[in-house]
Amino acid sequence: MALPTFTSFRRPRRAQNTSASSACSAKDSPLTSPKPHQVPSESTVKAATRTRLVFALLTSFFFLIALIFLVLVEVGNTHPSHPVLGSIYFLKLDLSHIIPASVPNAVLINTIARTLGLHDFYQVGLWNFCEGYDGQGITGCSKPVTLYWFNPVQIILNELLAGATIALPSDIVSALSLVRVVSRWMFGLFLTGACTAFISVFLTPLSIYSRLFTLPIAIFAFISALTTTVATVIATIMFVIFKNVIESAAAEIDIGANLGGKMFAFMWIASSFSIIAWLIQMGLCCCCASRRDVMTGKKLGRKKAYLHGGEAANGGLPVVMEKPKAATRRRFGFLGRRVQ
Predict the structure, then answer these.
(1) DSSP label at residue 324
(2) Gyration radius from the chain CA atoms
């Protein structure tokens, strides 16, 4: 009787091991197979992305605040009869004592200058200038002009009677060309900042749907914050320099210059809220799960969204894709060793 060969001896065991492993895999399949992602309900998605919704609405609210103060900057100094708008200006020139007191008969000369058509003060806004007398307030404003720039020399000469003139310091005259260019840039930037802030109020809440869509919204918010801040910086530097130049010529001609506190406060408040809103919007590009993340299973969002009455929804924790276990194989089957 011939002895079985090695091959015939191993075949029954290999077949037996194969059937045993198939039975084990069939038995363990419910535990090792990955669970499919379950699409959460609409209420669960909204609850899971509530944090992102709060920050998106907060960004929109900050842009709304910036827009309100930018509108005040835009309409300031345009209505002489309005007590609030009439007090919003960049710079106020006081010409009530245009002749220094050191000059003989200075009081009489100042009175004569007023009778010649010169007003006691002139205040500058974004669109125009207003004029008035001490004790009477604003008596009139110029017509609003696009890309307006303040030219005190031309205004004073136009106010005086025909043939009358006042020699202004050379420093003021030489600075007018720079003021004209900078004022037009400031006008355009403030108008752009107001328009972009208005659009951002309605655009930023859309960032709750997708983190990818949040990036272009953040870029648009950056443009709004940039234009508003640059316009504010330009206005601050220009009118501070203008005030210093006028006050430095007090020995030649006594013109007082005061900065408008309300206008500067409104500008910087609008810039601050625009910057904060942009920073929050940038954070939403990478933080807080969006509704698309929750729907596709990339992120879960708030864990409380999956709990109802203290118990987990769907009878357990949120559905997570489990990593399948590594398949088992035999090495050197005759040794009976299993390696994973």
Answers:
(1) P
(2) 38
